[in-house]
Amino acid sequence: MLVLKVLLLLLYCVGNIGCSTVPDNTTDMLSLLGFKEAITNDPLGVLSSWNKSIHFCSWKGVWCSPKHPGRVTALNLAGQGLSGTIAASVGNLTSVRSVDLSSNNFSGQIPHLANLQKMQVLNLSFNTLDGIIPDTLTNCSNMRKLDLYTNLLEGAIPPPIGRLRNLVYIDLSRNNLTGIIPASLKNISLLETIYLQRNQLEGSIPDELGQFSNISLMALGANRLSGNIPASLFNLSSLQVLELRANLLGGTLPTNMGDHLTNLRELYMGHNMLEGHIPASLSNASMLEYIVLQSNNFTGRIPTSLGKLSRLSKLDLQLNMLEANDTEGWKFLDALTNCTALEVLALTANQLQGVIPNSIGFLPSTLQYLILGGNTLSGIIPPSIGNLSGLILLALDENSLAGTIDQLIGNLKNLQYLHLEENNFAGTIPPTIGNLTELYLMKNDFIGSIPSTVGNLTRLSWLYLGKNKLQGLIPTSLGNLKQLTRLDLSDNNLQYNMP
Ligand SMILES: *[C@@H]1O[C@H](CO)[C@@H](O)[C@H](O)[C@H]1NC(C)=O
Ligand SMILES: *[C@@H]1O[C@H](CO)[C@@H](O)[C@H](O)[C@H]1NC(C)=O
Ligand SMILES: *[C@@H]1O[C@H](CO)[C@@H](O)[C@H](O)[C@H]1NC(C)=O
Ligand SMILES: *[C@@H]1O[C@H](CO)[C@@H](O)[C@H](O)[C@H]1NC(C)=O
Ligand SMILES: *[C@@H]1O[C@H](CO)[C@@H](O)[C@H](O)[C@H]1NC(C)=O
Ligand SMILES: *[C@@H]1O[C@H](CO)[C@@H](O)[C@H](O)[C@H]1NC(C)=O
Ligand SMILES: *[C@@H]1O[C@H](CO)[C@@H](O)[C@H](O)[C@H]1NC(C)=O
Ligand SMILES: *[C@@H]1O[C@H](CO)[C@@H](O)[C@H](O)[C@H]1NC(C)=O
Ligand SMILES: *[C@@H]1O[C@H](CO)[C@@H](O)[C@H](O)[C@H]1NC(C)=O
Ligand SMILES: *[C@@H]1O[C@H](CO)[C@@H](O)[C@H](O)[C@H]1NC(C)=O
Ligand SMILES: *[C@@H]1O[C@H](CO)[C@@H](O)[C@H](O)[C@H]1NC(C)=O
Ligand SMILES: *[C@@H]1O[C@H](CO)[C@@H](O)[C@H](O)[C@H]1NC(C)=O
Fold first, then answer.
1. Residue 86 DSSP code
2. In angstroms, rounded to a whole number, what is the distance separating the alpha carbons of residues 345 and 364?
3. Which listed ligand is nearest to 25 at the C-alpha?
4. Is 308 in the pocket of ligand 10 (CB under 6 A)?
5. Which is more confident, 478 or 19?
6. CATH class given for the domain over 1-121
7. Where in the cell is it found (predicted)?
């Protein structure tokens, strides 16, 4: 037994000069045993190696210092299915640099870790920890990455959080944190990434958050933040992603908003109470790929300057009060034909009026989602729309569009979702309607019979034809639609011979 132990110690000691003298009753070992004791379930048996026949520096998930034998530098047991609490004794691993207990089932509170002065990484994400984030955690002055994502933590973000001067990454999102965003964050001058979204934070966004010089990602969405967005945020030229969606933010955006956001790629401000015009200067943020401003109260025209954004991939301005009521107002569409990376154009529920300009067909072939429902569009669908061969979804529902749809589908070979419901479309349903997954034609004036070719749409899962003037027999080929889960043929003049 003794021989084995010495052998194991020697094995562990290869390359670690002098470590064979490390006693196995040090504070670090006692701390680890304390940690093990608090584990109530170890489904993968990872802690079975944590026994005295092996030196603790060789226990699974434990790393020790080569320079200071017997001192634990890392405890990494991510994703091991462990349940239980995090023992207070972890707070005695004073040489530890990294503690990663993420993706387990730890519950209870975060222990007192203020003595871990060398700790650079603390990752407790994806657990069910509750209670508060202890203020004393801000004593871990060497912390570079703090990740508490997805727990049940409550209470305030520690007001002295700014004492973590070396922090580059902080993620407190998906918890139940309340109170305000501490202004002391401004002291963390190296900060690159800050995730606070999906909590219950309130108050306004501190002006001080505009003082970071290395920040690349700021995500504060899905909280209860209110007031105006501080103009200082728009000076953060290192910012690549700004996510403020689903808060109670109001006011207008500054006209020079885009002038300094030279690295911004993704802008999310949807589901707030923002008003006024969308600043034309947004086009000066020339790296922009995603602009998502849906569900606000923006008014005025959609700026034509957006056509300068050569990387623009998603423009989502749905559910605002944006207007296009004359040639001038529709010019944005011409401009967007220059955005050769555009994939999503979503303008549902605004105040777009009149005939859709023919230029719609000259949007790039990269376009996959064209969403214009809930406006007051009238006239016919421009035939040029058939050029948009990349379209997967076309939504023109809830407008006053008329004419037939015979020519519509021809070239739209990739179309899967077609929403034309609640318009004044007339004529028959064409026999070649593409290979759709969802077809919505209800509340129009379609006549004639349902083409039997509908049975060829093997992918069709939703078919809504209700409230039209269809007649004749229901084609038996409908029975071929094995994927069909929703079918509405109501309020027509069909003969009910359901196949
Ligand atoms: C460890 O064990 C040695 C020898 O048994 C003993 O002298 C020492 O006091 C112990 N240290 C601790 C911290 O228990
Ligand atoms: C100690 O851990 C080693 C390595 O996992 C294992 O082979 C051994 O059976 C364990 N001993 C005890 C007493 O559990
Ligand atoms: C931490 O270490 C000290 C000194 O070795 C000891 O007195 C204390 O009980 C330890 N705390 C825990 C929670 O293990
Ligand atoms: C923390 O752990 C999670 C899951 O194990 C991982 O996805 C995440 O990147 C880690 N955080 C940091 C800052 O390394
Ligand atoms: C987590 O622990 C709870 C009880 O503490 C248990 O009901 C649940 O099944 C555990 N989940 C996993 C994924 O181990
Ligand atoms: C945390 O740091 C402060 C200031 O350096 C000090 O006064 C306090 O005692 C420390 N707290 C703990 C628990 O170490
Ligand atoms: C968050 O806190 C609120 C009130 O403080 C509570 O009602 C709610 O259940 C909590 N949510 C979670 C997921 O713990
Ligand atoms: C938009 O403005 C109208 C009228 O000013 C107001 O009733 C509505 O609540 C606002 N909507 C949002 C999302 O702010
Ligand atoms: C047309 O749109 C412009 C720009 O938003 C607006 O100023 C004007 O009042 C609108 N005119 C009508 C008749 O709605
Ligand atoms: C598209 O870009 C070209 C070349 O930069 C420019 O000449 C043209 O005016 C732009 N078109 C629109 C509609 O903005
Ligand atoms: C429709 O698409 C499915 C799946 O891609 C394919 O199997 C089927 O042959 C297509 N049908 C027609 C009529 O193109
Ligand atoms: C389409 O459906 C019609 C009528 O059901 C049938 O005669 C024809 O063979 C089908 N075409 C294809 C390509 O499946």
1. -
2. 11
3. 1
4. no
5. 478
6. alpha beta
7. Membrane
Task: Name which CATH class applies to 122-130+142-154+164-495.
Answer: alpha beta
Residue 297 Cβ < 6 Å to ligand 8: yes
Q: Report the nearest atom of ligand 3 relative to the CA of 30.
A: 14
Comma-separated ranges of CATH 3.80.10.10 domains in the chain:
1-121, 122-130+142-154+164-495
pLDDT per residue as tens digits for the range 154-169: 999 999 999 999 999 9
**pTM for the whole structure:** 0.90
Mutate to test the pocket of ligand 8, among 269, 273, 296, 318 (most ligand atoms within 8 A of CB): 273
Q: How far apart are CA 385 and CA 280, in angstroms?
A: 27
Residue type at 339 in one-letter notation: C
Residue 44 alpha carbon to ligand 9 centre in Å: 66
Closest-CA residue to 62 (of 91, 21, 33): 33
Long-range contacts of 227-234 (CB under 8 A, 24+ apart): 227/203, 227/251, 228/204, 229/205, 229/253, 229/269, 229/274, 230/204, 230/205, 230/206, 232/207, 232/208, 233/205, 233/209, 234/210, 234/258, 234/259, 234/260, 234/261
Is the CB of residue 458 less than 8 Å from the CB of residue 480? yes
